[in-house]
Amino acid sequence: MIPAGYMAKHVSNRPQWLAAPWVSDVYSVSNCISKTFAEYIGAWMHNGYWLFDSPEIIRELAQARSVDLTSTSLFYYEVHDVEFDAPAREWRSFVPDPSVTTHVVVPDDKHLAGYDVVSFSLGNSAECSPLSCNGLADEMQTNQHCLLSSFEEARQLLEWGRFDNTEPGPYRIFAVHSARWP
Fold first, then answer.
1. What's this model's pTM, rounded to 2 decimal places?
2. pLDDT above 70: percentage of residues in the chain
3. Contact indicator for 161, 86 with CB cutoff of 8 Å
4. Using CA atoms, how far apart are residues 43 and 67, in angstroms rounded to an integer?
């Protein structure tokens, strides 16, 4: 897994329409249910994975935009070095957006929460997490954060076609870690 960066998010409880009673909240990489701390793309402070290289950069942007981070949770992400092309049934390499520098500072204190599968039809920023966005957690065993328990499980489910016809791919596997603000 490759260090991809950080994001501060407002973690949402399980939406009522998601019937998976074991899910208490949603730690997905996508912005569909648990929202990011602010609109950040136009500031061009993100890295090539469209995340942030450090928590300090998030704080800097939040301060510039007068955004209070006290109700957010900090996440650190790692991404698998290949993405899955569902129609072709193959793994292929990808690179972070080369127009933006990427120098992720790996945290000293991180706690693995699980693995998310995320669509990237536009190739740069995370779009949807079918486990939560499309309700696949109703059909698959996830943990309390609506994430898969292992990388191997995420890989197998992709290869077996369990994410087919949910969102346009390709799909990337992310390790989702909770982190602490420095």
1. 0.95
2. 100
3. yes
4. 14
